[in-house]
Amino acid sequence: MSNPVNGASYDFALDFDFDPSPPSVDELLALTPKPAHRPRRILLLSDVHGNWHALAAVIQATAGRYDSIVFLGDAVGYGPRPLECVEYLLRAVPAARWRAGNHDLGVFGYMDGIGWSGNAAFTLTAHRWMLNGNRAIEADFRRLVTPRKGGPVLHSYGRCQQVLTHANLENDMETYLFPRGLFAGTGNNLLRLRNYVSQPAPCAWLLVGHTHVPCLFRLPVQNTSTEDIAVMSIPYGQPLPVDDGHYLINPGSVGQPRDGNRDAAYALLDVQELTVEFGRVRYDDVAVAQEMNAAYEPERARSLIQLLQNAGTAKTHLELTPVYTVESWGLKANAVFGGRSKPDTAS
């Protein structure tokens, strides 16, 4: 199926049946529990990027399985429906459980010193204009988003400690822990996690987004070398123990995955059983492509649709391969320099 104006192809989900329109914000909130003061089961989301269809699909697929949402940042950027995404997240996620991403900060001019890609710069301008059209949402979003809001914050829910951040412990939005950072940034952050949690800390989780790629790394508490980091395989839909050591957990991107898998990504954390379950869910990316064609100029829409269709770029896929291999059941850990793969938990 091609747009007659720009020829962009968006037939990549036509073999799936979807509702003709996604739920409204209020309808999605009806499926969302009131945030628990002391949560047990957490829905971990990151990098929604204005993709309302993807966010709605995740909330619908996980209904009844969590009692609070943690959002690691980037409600805006790229996708065609930022207003619904921002409004839902503002109403569903307590401010203390929300970190600001670089696009959230950029839409308010906090990140003018960094180099944005063409797609990012264009959609930040477009989303700034869209937010200006709804002053109530813009005002609430602006009050939440500050430069310090992107950096690490400590929580102690259940039987472990959690440090939430968008990009890394340094709050450096131009540094990606994984895959670009591999074990230079990732290893240093896991080693430094012990400085951010109360001791003793036999179990601690560093919860990060930013890379748009799910990952799970473990460092034993007593170890002080990045060579002792274990890359753990990620079988979707299977709870994995994260109860002994320090872990880096990235749920991947809801609205713009970059690991070659177009399905929206999320994770479910059980802070009592000390498990993480990664998940993927299909959504109506045809409708998203149509909305991009309606919202953006033809050349930019074509580029954004290609990024969505390919679930990343050749570069992001190449960066993934030393660490993970994409399989039908999930991500298979590979042996990599500077870290060790853990025996697979699925086949």
Strand proportion: 15-25%
Radius of gyration: 19 Å
- By secondary-structure content and strand pairing, the structural class works out as alpha/beta
How many structural domains are formed by the residues? 1
Sequence of secondary-structure elements: HEHEHHHHEEHEEEEEEEEHHHEEE
Q: Could you name the CATH class? A: Alpha Beta
**Which fold name is given in CATH as the topology?**
Purple Acid Phosphatase, chain A, domain 2
| Global morphology | globular
User: Number of helix segments?
Assistant: 10
User: Average pLDDT across residues?
Assistant: 89
**What's the CATH architecture?**
4-Layer Sandwich
Order the strands across the largest sheet as they lie in space: 3-4-5-10-6-7-15
Helix content: 25-40%
Topology (SSEs and partners):
Blueprint: H1 25-29, E1 41-45, H2 52-62, E2 68-71, H3 82-92, H4 102-106, H5 118-132, H6 135-144, E3 153-155, E4 161-164, H7 182-192, E5 203-207, E6 215-219, E7 230-231, E8 234-235, E9 240-241, E10 245-250, E11 264-270, E12 275-281, H8 285-295, H9 298-310, H10 314-320, E13 324-327, E14 330-333, E15 340-341
Parallel strand pairs: 1-2, 4-5, 5-10, 7-15
Antiparallel strand pairs: 1-11, 3-4, 6-7, 6-10, 8-14, 9-12, 11-12, 13-14
